[in-house]
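Supplementary notes (optional reading)

For those who missed the lab, this is the record we used. Protein: Ubiquitin-associated (UBA) isoform 1. Length: 298 residues.
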Amino acid sequence: MNAGPSGFRGAPVTKGLLLGTISSSVILQAIKAARRRPPLLVSLFSHAYAFRAPGELLFGASLLYFYRVFERQWGSSRYGAFLVATCGLAYAFEAAASAAFGLPSSSGPFPLVFANLAANFVLLVPPLHRFTVFGLKMTDKAFIYLASLQLLVSSPPASLVAGASGLLAGLLYRSNFLGLQRLRLPAAVVDLFSATVGRVLSGPGPQQQVFVTPTAAQLQAQQAQQHAAEAAAFGGGRPAAGGAAPRGGGATRRAAAAAEPSPEAVQQLVAMGFDQGQAAAALRQTGNNVEAALQYLL
């Protein structure tokens, strides 16, 4: 499954989150290897950012990196507010579970991974490929679900509590609990991320380009528009004054319709990670069919 162009272009908040997670996880592992007790400030920071096991870091960082697609779609202001809101709710749920039932809490940004899964990935990302494994029909979204499941059961019961708290926080955000979806990070904070973290390990190109990921409903509407356009194009030309159809009129209009792909179809392929020129060329080759153009590009 494609999450758009590689790297962190247009996703400075995700870059800052991952840099903090990876660096703090490595530092925590070094402190543990030296058998030293970390300072209080380091302990508080590592509880929010550092995964305690290499396997958790691998799966957790990979999922957070994939979810940068939502920052590109929403913009850094809204996505950053989403992270702050769901993280606060999830940590409150973890504290309540610990106080009421004595359940341990896990270290690392578990809530952010599972809040993205519940609030965004399940509903907003359409499947692109379908396949069968041992008789089971699956889609390419299954890989994200399997990675999330692996992270969820990595260190029970702490990981289960953290994952469940993140899922609940994500569902509350999706239901717009207390108007959470209206929250935005201040522009000064976003500018600070872009000017500092956004410049770290950055390549050429704009830093705040926003990519739109089509939903399943948008894909279905696009396919319906394509079918209607094809039906209109193959209807042929109008008869001339003498009653005879103009020579080659239908074919000319069909060629003209296929010459320029629709902007919506180009944008869908760009959101999946392809260059705009390549997307337009593929759509011309496939008669403006998004699915066929995707297969052509792959």
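If you only remember one thing from this example: The CA atoms of residues 55 and 154 lie 8 Å apart.
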